[in-house]
Design brief:
413 residues; 14 helices; five-stranded mixed sheet; four-stranded mixed sheet; elongated; hypothetical protein PF0899 fold
Amino acid sequence: MKKDQFLQIVRSKAKAALTPEEESMFGAIGEGIEAALQAEGVERAKQLTAISQALGTVDNGESLAGIVRNLADQVQKIEDRSKRGMSASEKLNLRKQLEEKRDEIIAARGTNNGWAIEFRAKRAASALMTTGTVLTGAQAVNNTNVYDDMEVLVIQYPRNFIIDAIGGRQVANVPQTWQWKEETTAGDGVIGAVNEGAEKTLVDKKMVWKYAQRVKYAGRIEFTMEVEMDMEQLLLQVVDMFEQQVLRAWNAGVQAAIIAWAPAYTSTGLDGFFKSPGIAQVIEAGKLHVSDNNYTADMVMINPVDAAKAMIHQNADGDIVYLPEAVAFGGLSPFVTNNITAGTIVVGTSNIVKEQHSNFIVRRGVYGDQFKENEETIIGEVFSNLKLPTVAQNSWVKLDVPTVLAALTAVGA
């Protein structure tokens, strides 16, 4: 009941046209009725009773109070009728069971005998996500004062390595094969000083084709339509969690490829230089290793355990000094992740590695018996192609912490 509808009823019941003052007064009453009808059952009845007690007569034998009480009764009846309805799945199950009992029902009607049907709106779902599995541990709450918070607290994971560390580029179509030319030193001449009239050195430049193949990172989830009907917002969050899971698998795959591609530490001028080296010195040795090959390292991939150790220095007496991040990581940008095992550190030049990827692709459909079982499948996938040039392999280095610590420790220290 809106304010204007209430005024229209008042005008139809009044003996004469309402004055401006009466229009204003009844308009205010209409606003009160509109607010009261929007309240819950008990509060609504209380507000309407207060309004009806304050109203006067409009026509002989009928009062505004009576109109308000009649409106309240109509709203209550409508609310009672709408409290319980059958869902689409319940109707489908009921229709099926009625059809199965058709002959018994016809026979019972013909003899005026009583009949009964047992109705169970239940099915065994083969989907991975049913209401029970999504809401594991849920229980009935016999309390009307409940706030249903559908926000899901999720497990935390590190930021996107491909985007934040190596600057992967999204493209409309990821190529199946990525090919590029690399220089090879085989047959190269040596440039040097040449005397007047002497023959110049012949420099033989050779190139070789290199290739990278496209990789697909994908997974799927299955769910019943009841989950979507009853918990739409929760399903959206589950799909978002599924998307993040696919993206993490993509990140882990790219990181694993880089770790496998990076060459191991051999030696630098820091070998045998320290009395008591730590993780910070291992990172510095990796930075120098890259510099010795004419590249400039700008990032370090490191496990959370080793990252914590890098910022702690302990002398022979056990005294601890906490190092600032810039010192602990030698000015490199740290990327802390559990995708690299503790005891292994990778230092590298981020712009040497190239990557192309698609956006996150979602496909929705059914397969097998899912259609008749009221289930659906969502597939999520990312296509990626990673360029790891062989000629620039020494722009990265993989450091085995115990091995490098032993190499850095001075003899007799």
